[in-house]
Write a structure and sequence with these properties.
Layout (H helix, E strand, L loop, with lengths): L2 E5 L4 E5 L3 E2 L4 H13 L5 E4 L5 E2 L1 H14 L6 E4 L4 H9 L7 E3 L2 H16 L1
Parallel strand pairs: 2-4, 3-5, 4-6, 6-7
Antiparallel strand pairs: 1-2
Helix pairs in contact: 1-2
């Protein structure tokens, strides 16, 4: 599995560098999520801009990340959903109603920063 990790003060982002997020990739991705969460990554951004196909195992991996980071103290954001088939699957599965989906990693970082400032007030 190929990916890039960017650890910042307020968030960790992962750019998945794969065409497919499927049953071959999903188990390793879930393990990576658990490891990053255990290491203390407070907020997490998953960038799917390189992904052209997602199956049910891929959706399960995304939901795993959401469960790990979605709380009053942290956020999970999904970005880069530009491929029409990936976008349609997210919409059909109604994940767009429960996930924080933003166009870019920069947008997600700004969202997280705003939420952190609001929490501190």
């Amino acid at each position: 599995m190929k990916y890039l990790i960017d650890k910042q003060e307020l968030y960790t982002s992962m750019s998945l560098m794969e065409d497919n997020l499927n049953s071959l990739i999903a188990p390793d991705l879930k393990s990576e999520f658990v490891m990053l969460h255990t290491e203390g990554a407070k907020n997490f951004i998953l960038d799917l801009s390189q992904v052209k196909f997602v199956d049910s195992s891929g959706l399960s991996a995304i939901l795993t990340a959401n469960r790990l980071w979605k709380s009053e103290q942290s956020h999970f954001c999904l970005t880069g959903i530009s491929n029409p088939s990936v976008k349609k699957l997210i919409e059909i599965s109604k994940l767009d109603t429960i996930l924080s989906i933003l166009p870019t990693t920069a947008d997600a970082a700004a969202f997280i920063q705003k939420e952190e400032v609001s929490r501190e007030m």
